[in-house]
């Protein structure tokens, strides 16, 4: 059987590292301050063998490192490396999307405060050149020096997409978005559609996803309101898949995944894609900014306050933890 090839893509390389739901739940727990194995297990709800396996993978990928905190017995904390901390901006875009599009009932609420200006803020993606908010419609792309073809050697993984919404409410923050970003097939489908490929055969050729998997992911993305089906032929019945407003707004997450992949997995020739911000004409470097002062945010310049629903309280009662800097 001939080996299939797909376009080189920094998003694809990033998703090979973090594109599964259990990995994203671990990263979420770390961003909320969990460092030790039992704390990570409690917040993620993962079984011990699965958590142990994913932590080993994250250490091998240089996203976490183990630090000894007890010699008798030997116990370790799991700290983000610089590479892991650079996923911070992806996490903020995931949080932004979750707040806007996911049902808010029964989950953690989190308030962000920008220490630089003192305001409670929403994270927004802006162009570093013109400081204007970046949307999918404002970005043009061309092939970069690193464009080419690579073998579609997807690693085998079980599907844990349904794991995120099954967690108890007191540990839930990014459940809706984790189902999409944690399912690399779904994110690769969205990548293809964002580049103008809307027909089933086009998406299949671009991603080399098996037809049964592709059909299921397209149906699921339509069911959760990210895509819609537009019929363009009656005989035979054929459809195009188009992004809804909810789907278009997912672009900022893909953009941050792409930039992280360009930083850590780019080929020697350069990035596969070059992006241009149409309103100002500059090569796009997107940064995450404070919605109040429009300044780029850093992990150390952000404090957060978590409000968690406790299982022993009525739904309207909540427990608040004090504001603290995000881990950096």
Label this structure with key terms.
328 residues; alpha+beta; 3-stranded antiparallel sheet; 12 helices; globular
Sheet-strand content, in percent, reads 15-25%
**Gap between N and C termini, in Å?**
47 Å
Q: Which structural class is indicated by helix and strand composition?
A: alpha+beta
Shape by Cα distribution: globular
Largest sheet: 4 strands, antiparallel
- Helicity range: 25-40%
> How many helix segments?
12
- Mean pLDDT comes to 86
Number of DSSP-assigned strands: 15
- Rg calc: 20 Å
Number of domains as seen in the coordinates: 1
Low-confidence stretches: 310-326
Q: What is the chain-wise order of helices and strands?
A: EHHHHEEHHEEEEHHHHEEHHEEEEEE
Descriptive account of the structure:
This protein is 36% helix and 22% strand. The chain has 328 residues and is an alpha+beta fold. The chain has one domain. The strands form 6 sheets. Strands 4, 13, 14 and 15 form a 4-stranded antiparallel β-sheet that branches. It has a 3-stranded antiparallel β-sheet with strand order 6-10-11, with no helix packed on it. Strands 1-7 form a two-stranded antiparallel ribbon. It is globular, with a radius of gyration of 20 Å.
Short synopsis of the structure:
This protein has 328 residues and is of the alpha+beta class. It has one domain (5-313). The chain has helices at 10-18, 21-31, 37-44, 48-60, 82-85, 88-101, 175-181, 184-194, 200-207, 211-223, 245-248, 251-265; strands at residues 5-7, 64-71, 74-80, 109-114, 123-127, 139-143, 149-151, 227-233, 238-243, 273-277, 282-283, 286-290, 302-308, 319-320, 324-325.
């Amino acid at each position: 059987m001939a080996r299939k090839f797909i376009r080189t893509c920094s998003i694809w390389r990033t998703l090979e590292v973090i594109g599964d739901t259990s990995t994203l739940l671990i990263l979420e727990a770390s961003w909320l301050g969990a460092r030790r194995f039992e704390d990570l297990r409690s917040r993620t709800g993962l079984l011990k063998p699965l958590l142990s396996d994913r932590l080993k993978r994250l250490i091998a990928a240089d996203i976490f490192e183990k630090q000894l905190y007890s010699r008798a017995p030997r116990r370790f904390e799991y700290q983000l490396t610089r590479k892991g901390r650079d996923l911070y901006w992806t996490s903020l875009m995931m949080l932004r999307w979750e707040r806007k599009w996911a049902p808010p009932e029964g989950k953690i609420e989190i308030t962000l405060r920008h220490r630089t200006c003192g305001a409670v803020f929403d994270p927004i993606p802006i162009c570093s050149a013109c400081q204007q908010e970046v949307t999918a419609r404002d970005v043009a792309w061309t092939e970069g020096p690193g464009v080419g073809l690579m073998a579609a050697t997807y690693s085998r993984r079980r599907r844990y997409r349904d794991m995120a919404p099954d967690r108890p409410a007191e540990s839930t923050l990014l459940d809706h978005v984790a189902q999409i970003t944690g399912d690399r097939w779904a994110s690769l489908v969205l990548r293809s559609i964002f580049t103008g490929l809307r027909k089933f055969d086009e998406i299949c050729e671009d991603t080399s996803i098996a037809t049964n998997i592709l059909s299921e992911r397209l149906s699921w993305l339509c069911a959760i309101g990210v895509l819609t089906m537009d019929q363009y032929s009656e005989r035979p019945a054929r459809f195009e898949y188009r992004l809804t407003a909810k789907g278009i707004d997912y672009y900022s997450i893909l953009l941050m995944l792409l930039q992280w992949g360009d930083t850590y997995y780019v080929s020697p020739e350069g990035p596969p894609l070059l992006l241009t911000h149409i309103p100002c004409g500059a090569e796009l470097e997107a940064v995450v900014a404070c919605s109040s002062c429009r300044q780029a945010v850093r992990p150390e310049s952000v404090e957060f306050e978590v409000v968690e629903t406790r299982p022993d309280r009525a739904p309207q009662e909540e427990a608040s933890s004090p504001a603290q800097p995000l881990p950096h």
